[in-house]
Each structure stands twice: as C-alpha cells, then as structure tokens.
Amino acid sequence: MKRCLFLLALVPLLSLTLASEIGDPENYVGHALALHGDLKYDADFSHFEYVNPDAPKGGTMRLATIGTFDSLNPFILQGTPAAGSGLIYDTLLTSSSDEAFSEYGLLVERVEVPSDGSWVAFYLRPEARWHDGEPLTSDDVVFSFNLLTTDGHPFYRSYYGSVADVEAIDERTVKFTFEGDINKELPLIVGQLPILPEHYWQDKDFTAPTLEPPLGSGPYRIADFDAGRNISYERVPDYWGADVPANVGKNNFDILSYDYYRDTTVAIEALKAYEYDFRSENNAREWANAYNIPEKDAGLFAQELIPNENNQGMQGFFFNTRLSKFADPQVRRALTYAFDFEWMNETLFYGQYTRTNSFYENSELTAEGLPTGLELEILEPYRDELPEEVFTTPYELPVTDGSGNAREQLRTARQILADAGWEIQDGVLTNVDTGEVMEIEFLLIDPNFERIVSPFIQNLERLGVQASIRTVDQAQYQNLVQDFNFDMIVSTIRQSLSPGNEQRDMWTSDVADVTGSRNLAGIQDPVIDALVEDVISAPDRETLVAATRALDRALLWGHYVIPQWHIAAYRIAYWDKFGRPEISPKYSLGFITWWVDEDKLAEVEAAN
C-alpha cells in the first residue's frame, strides 16, 4: 500500500499570537515543510538523491493482485476499487522517502504558514493541468476537500476533522483554516489531499461505484481494463508535472498493468511463467521454497531481501470488543497465551520473523521497559483509570519453548479465565454468570492463513473454546469488516514515523461504530482518546515520541490484539529486466524510481 500517511509539520513556532494574514512577513513561506527538523532539500533542488534523473522512459511493468474490482473510484466506502487507481491523481504536497518528516511541493510551488500554525495557504503551480487540458485551480481544491469530507470514505471526515474552513483566495491560492488546539502537522496533512476535478464530478454521483474512467491530473491515466480481471495505466506523455523536482526520475514506465488472480498460489506460478514481472512476497514458506527456478540460477530472475527503516506498525489477531465475550481485557489476555509464536516461527516460517511487541514496532516510538521521564508525566494523570501494570510491569508476550506443547501457557490461561468468571462446562468454555459460551470465528481473506490459524485453534480448543475459520472472497470480506461483522480478524495497522490525526480513526471512541473506520477492535476508552490527542498536539519531537510511547503502552495493556510478527525488510521476487538508482531510500522500496533496462529485457525475453 503506498506508505502510511506522512505526518509532518512546520518550522518551530515563534509565538502563540493571533493568526496573521496571508503575506505577513513573520509567516513561513517555502517550497516544502518539515516536522521537528530541517529540510534535506533546499528550494533549488533539482531531484531527490534516491532517483536517477536521467532514467529512460518506456517499457512495461506488469504486476499482479488478488481478488477482483468493481469500481474506479478509490475514495468512497462502496465498491472495491481497482489496484493503482490512485495513480491518476496528484496531491498538493508529496513526501520525500529519505526523510521521515518532510513533504515538498507537487501541485503547489510554495506554501505559507503563520507562526501559530492556525492556517495554511497553498500557491498552485500555474502549469498544473487536468488530462483534458483544463487548468487545475483553487476551486478544484476547495471542491475536493468538501466532496471527500462529505461524500467520501468516513476516513476523510476524521482525518481532516480539524479543518474549520477552506476558501479560494484567488485562482491559484487556497487557504485552510484550523480549529481547536494547535496541531503542527495539520498543514502537511492537508498537503496530502488528493485533488479531483470539479468540472468532471459536479454532475455525477460520487458516492456510487463507477467503471467510467475518471479524469485526473497525475502521471498516469487509465488505458484499458476488464472489470474484475485486469487494468492498465499509460504514462501521460505531456504530463504537466514531469519536471517538478519532486517528480524527476520517477514514473518511468510507459505502461503499468495489474492482472487479478484467484489466490496467491496461482499468482506465484504465473510470475514464474513470466505472465507478469514483479511480486512483493509476504509469505515465509513461499519465500523459502517457491522461487527456486532455473532462471534464478541463470541470473534472469531475482529474489532479494532489502532492509528498511520503516515503522512496522502492528499485525495481529484483532478482537472485536463490541462483542460481550471479548469485553473483559483479562479474557483477551488469557487467549493470547494460546498463540504459540515460537513453534510457528520455527516450523512454518523458517525462522524469518520477529515477534511484534508494539503498535509502532521497529521505531523509536515503541514503549519499552517501564515508563519514565516525560512519558510517565503524560501517563500519570490517568493512573487510576489505567491497568496497574502500565506503571509496574514491562509489557511482555508469553514465550513458549517452541516444542509445540504450550502446556504451561495454557495452564496460565485457564487460571486467568477462571478469575474472570469463565470455566469449562460440558467441555465448553462458559461464562458462569451469563451462560455465554466462548465461540470464535476467524474471518480470513487469504486461504494461506488457514495453516497459521489452525494450530492456534487447536490450543484454543484445549481451553474449551469452540473455534472455526471462515474464508471469504474480497468483496465479502470488505463488507463484513466495514460493518464490524466478525469475531476476530487478521489485520495490519501500518504507521508512519510521525503519528498524528490518523490515530483518531484507529483507536478512538468517536469512530468505534462508524462504518469503515480503522478502529477494528472497537476501542471505546476515554484514556485512549485523551492519549491520542496528546500525540496529535505534541509541540516537538521529544513530546511526540513520549506521547506515542504512552499510547502504545496503554493499547498493549488493553489487550485489544494478539500480536503476530514482523520483518524489517522488503522481500521481492522479479524478472531482472529493470534498472535501479544507486541509492535506495530509507523509508520505501522506491519502486516508482525503477526503469526498464533494454539490454536486460532482451535477455529475459529471449529466455521466455
């Protein structure tokens, strides 16, 4: 998925005065914005250092995805959007993949912010154009914001909830005014806004899925598609933004295409048969066994592990705490003891993974040990409302000996369940007060995950849990998850290196019952709500880190998730017909900086 949201901010606050007007000499005016630090690239930069500015244009990159699609609108709740459908749009700002907290002008040539951060003004590039040749104006920006926050996916209403007003000052200037406590990342959050054409959408139903190719302004446009089976995008030859410094060296393929496959097994076989070119692998067994083909030994096919410095977020089994059986955190804690990661990692994953112990894994935001210093100060006001362990016990997951016999862990689980009022009656784990039995259905979208859930179920059954697996197709899964119609699901909550507004959509009470929100666990806790706001309002990097660690610790001791695993690297398999820049970015694969190498292509084509 593109990199999780780039939450950035401004120059240091000079004072907390009343908001100044546009053009005030005290305002910050520049080509980019950075959070808690200096920009790496100055106003005269010509390109990012992790691109090849002379990369040749041309050729085709063929990709694969699983499932189906029935819509070309990626911004609404209804329908399943086509892979890559965001490629046709530009945003106001775009991120740098070798800086954790910076964004540079894309649609805009400069940005202005007052010292109190109460508003932001964007100055659009005069050359910005839609694919039909019409100019992109500030009216389009206002229209896009209002459309997305009114008729778009509920995420947009939450993410941009601190915007009080947006106005077109003139044809190329648009101003966003904020409300509530000062949040220094808001100008950059607004900078991530995808811009849609008012003249195209004004007489159409934006809320309905559509298979009419929409109009965009981005580097690609839809070339052809067969609904549910494939879609291809062509590079716009006269793309208005090709020479914008933040774009130089990117978007090098003439054609980007996606073929849809029924499942990953079929997709992997298709890759080896040269039906497409590149795959990012997330299955340890397939990574270990599936790609040993003669072409690999011949140097025509590559399998590569590329380390990264990304915040890994949290992958895990998410409890639906809206259900009474999962309302007690001690019950959720007890069931965690039935998951034998050590045996699974050795037996199923070839020892490739590390257990995840944080919602912000692989970053300085991870809560470790006991809270101290500023983190403790942030948590202290909530001491009486948080579990005692938050202050007294480092969070640690149960560890088995890897033998597959988790007898000691299950014994602990039984005791915790008994203390919480759950006992085995007639062979079934039962709430002694209400008579409710513990039934858990694992909702899955990937059949490959059944082999992971099944051993977990065996241990759960030893606790008296009646557990089962339900694997559904993509459309069913999307509808069920959006409506929170599940017991437990496997999901990944990805994070940036600078958490902010998007945390509201992940953890807070206001969105717990909002269809389509990312608060999958249904968390409704005023302390979590308050800690999220502490993260969002952090005035500097030190406070942001401490506040995020405090939130992490509270989430962990809430036992909303049974954490799974992570690997801090990209696992990629591809036909070796591409060129790549000499420098790789820290925080992304840099895939959009690759290009087709004609000499390598000829060798691969000759062998196939």
**Any low-confidence stretches, pLDDT <50, length ≥5?**
1-19
Query: Helix/strand-derived class?
Result: alpha+beta
Total number of strands: 26
Q: Quick check: average pLDDT?
A: 93
CATH architectural group of the largest domain:
3-Layer(aba) Sandwich
Would you give the CATH topology of the largest domain?
Answer: D-Maltodextrin-Binding Protein, domain 2
Radius of gyration: 25 Å
CATH class of the largest domain: Alpha Beta
Looking across the biggest beta sheet, what order are the strands in?
1-6-7-9-8
Characterization of this structure:
Helix content is 25%, strand content 21%. It has two domains: 350 residues, Periplasmic binding protein-like II (D-Maltodextrin-Binding Protein, domain 2, 3-Layer(aba) Sandwich), CATH 3.40.190; 253 residues, Dipeptide-binding Protein, domain 3 (Roll), CATH 3.10.105.10. It is built from 18 helices and 26 strands. The chain is α+β, with helices and mostly antiparallel strands. It starts with 27 loop residues before the first strand and ends with a helix. The strands form eight sheets. It has a five-stranded antiparallel sheet with strand order 1-6-7-9-8.
